[in-house]
Predict the structure.
Amino acid sequence: MSHNVIVPIGPYHPLLEEPELFQLHVEGEKVVDIDIIIGYSHRGIEQLAETKHLDQIPFLVERICGICSSSHPYTYVLAVEDILGGEKAVVPERALYIRTIIDELQRIHSHLLWLGLAGHFIGYNTVWMWAWKYREPVLDMFEMITGNRNNYAMFKVGGVRRDIKDEDVPVLKKALDELVPALDLFRGAVMDDPVIQARLKNVGILTKQQCIDWCVVGPTARASGVNIDVRRDEPYGAVDRLDWKVIIEKDGDVYAKTIVRILEMYESVRMIRQCLDKMPQGEIDAKVADIPAGEGIGRVEAPRGECFHYIKTDGTNRPVRLKVRAPSFMNVASDKVGAVGGTISDATITLAAVDPCYCCTERVAVINKPDNRKIMNGWDLIKMSQAKTNKIKEEMKQ
Amino acid sequence: MKALFYYLIFPGFLFSAVAGLLSSWVERKVTARIQWRVGPPWYQNFLDLIKLSGKETIIPKQARATFLLAPYLGLFSLVLAATILGLALFTPQQSFTGDLIVVVYLLVIPAICAIIGASSSRNPLASVGAAREMKLVLGYELPFVLSIATVIVKTHGGIRLGDILAFQMNFNSLFFSFSGALAFIAALLCCQAKLGLAPFEVAEAEQEIMAGTVIEYSGSALAAFKLTKAILLYTMPVLLILFFLGKDISPIFSLAKYIIILVVFILIKNTNPRLRIDQAVRFFWGPVTAIAGLALILALLGL
């Protein structure tokens, strides 16, 4: 990297709402290299989880991500139920269906949110506003089922917290019916618009081999022809009792990623409809009392890809270790191949096309201490602040 | 004295500023309605401008002297262009020979000033924005001049705005001829780029280069840029009316045409994503130049 200019995207930038830093090395408009620097929003959630009861942790991991806020608690309860012998062995039938309904509704809302943001990133604010308008009914459905628009607080070890009332089912079905024309609208808008195609086609291409090399997951991988989906490969909830298909595209460009997400929303609508039809009556909570010592893993297909939790317990009511791996952790790194070689305009939409979610991703903050700098902890900063306050007080006295 | 009144009050600075800010309000309001939002009240742009003028103007340490000159130079020359166009529209007999050429020159200066200001701020993002603006100017000037040449040919060598209007009043609006309609479409697209509206807002692409050319500007200098943008939004439809839709320029008809052209700009803006700069230049040098060139040939053949 000799004399080229660095265009920083971040730590605070209109493109992305979360703090992270992409340093684009550019020659003119062309991106020749990219440095991905994350670690601005590390919150120490894994450490915090070791201080909580097993029942409190769903509340905590729900806050890892505001958008896929059912994936993390779902993955966590799957990990704990893995110790008990698996989800199907523990959880009542009706709860499985409710879990799947929540998970798929979340996928619709997350993909609509991404679609809107993607429109915003290529300067098409009308798509942004329209996508978010049609996302509102989905959030209303959530509010009806769970009482919350986000952070649903539905998952607990052994079942779910709230039942879906029988009188709500027709209302939900009607809302789903009304959602389909909106999805048709977006599918048409993306597939028929030559300008959108000019912006998205052959941009940020990830080949199938690159996807495998960089361990890319979720819709980003499926858009490149990698046939993976946790829902099919290791079914959880009620997904193996439903009729649906995994959406695969071949091209690997941003356009293919958009198409995969749009078509996945149709599949999610189908799955929720079937769940509402097939859902049996019965208990929703197995009332699990004790968790024995052991190790368990949970895998869930979050809207961005495979979400993974590992838990180790020692027979007490607190975990010894909770390890979280969010899908964006795998996907963000692939920007290194996706964004290099394009222009700055292409780089922004390529960075956004993996649907990155940074605060989900950040588990560890590694600090390289430069020789001449002191690294301060919280107490140092408080002392510094007090010293400054005293200094100002002195100045004001004079 | 009279010239000063024309320049400062009507139809110069004050009038075009008010008209421009109201047009920007129309732009914001219509955009908001298209996007299912409510949109601001009509005085919002005035408040924004007043507030911005009162803010501190921060000058980067490394900036060159042209940093502060650029926004005001752009504003002055644009107001001059708006004055000439306004005089031609409201009192056609007042226009002078060759004012068309003067206007075409003056309308380039705001873009050049944006480039000068951006490059004197020495910000890497601003320099990317300046490079994009320059490429865009190179892209749209050729078809723009070609479509104006069509107007000149159609009006038998009219390089006086008054003559062009008089010709259209006697015969028909140039828009209602083959060559005129084609030239109008080319000029409309060029104006969209001159205005820096999507799909051609590449120089200020917020999500890519954080407002690009104006990234280092603040306070009254930024207000001058914003005002330039607003006045440009008033000037461009007036220019199109004068050149292509000049049959009936009574106030009501003029206003109706003005609003229709404005809404066309806004609709194009809201139904297109931002193009890449290479796509934008290719678009102007390819199809748009072809349309404008065809219009010129048809005009020479008398169609």
Observations:
- The longest helix of chain B spans residues 124-154.
- Residues 2-300 of chain B form one domain.
